[in-house]
Amino acid sequence: MSAIRFDSLHDYQQQIAQACTTAQRQILWFDDDLSDTAADSLELATQLKRLLVGSSLAKVQILLNDDAWFWRKCPRLQQLLNIYGHAFELRLSNEIDKGAGERFLLTEQSVVRIFHSESLRGEASDHAGSRSLCLQRFEALWLRAEPPSEGRRLHI
């Protein structure tokens, strides 16, 4: 696929859904709070569960600037986090990285990017250069990120 540009919330959510549908082993997701992504939808939770159940090597890593919306509005993702905690991880970005620019969802096949936090302009692409830049960025942010202070039960 060549780069598909978008500038509306509907198109952005559609590209997120498409990327999650085609993911086979990993989803690396960096966002402010997931509120623009339809992360609370049954369809997206079903796609993530399909990925996690489909392979013992599958992983979903979500990195957020603020997790309040996740804990209030995403019970399906919270359930996946509790059940598949070995393969599904949530972290909060470091204070230094909170204004970190573009948001993205990265799979082994594609990347969906929002160019600026104040706009929904972005693109979905399978370009290897874009994917590798987002992967480097995600790995650097992930290393500095911290686990959320609330959420996962310890079952003690």
Molecular structure report:
- The chain has 156 residues and is of the alpha/beta class.
- It has one domain (4-144): Endonuclease Chain A (Endonuclease, Chain A), CATH 3.30.870.10.
- The protein has five helices and seven strands; from the N terminus they run E-H-E-H-E-H-H-E-E-E-E-H.
- A seven-stranded mixed sheet has the order 1-7-6-5-2-3-4, sandwiched between helices.
- The mean pLDDT is 91.
Helical fraction: 25-40%
- Structural class, please? alpha/beta
Give the tally of β-strands: 7
Task: Briefly note the CATH topology name.
Answer: Endonuclease, Chain A
**Could you tell me the mean pLDDT?**
91
CATH architecture: 2-Layer Sandwich
Biggest sheet overview: 7 strands, mixed
Element string (H = helix, E = strand):
EHEHEHHEEEEH
Terminal Cα separation, in Å?
A: 48 Å
Return residue spans where pLDDT drops below 50 for at least 5 consecutive residues: none
Which percent band covers the strand fraction? 15-25%
What is the H level of CATH, i.e. the homologous superfamily? Endonuclease Chain A
Radius of gyration: 14 Å
Name of the level-1 CATH class? Alpha Beta
Arrangement of strands in the largest sheet: 1-7-6-5-2-3-4
| Annotation field: number of helices | 5
Overall 3D geometry? Answer: globular
Overall domain count: 1
Protein name: DUF7931 domain-containing protein
InterPro entries: DUF7931
Domain DUF7931: 10-154
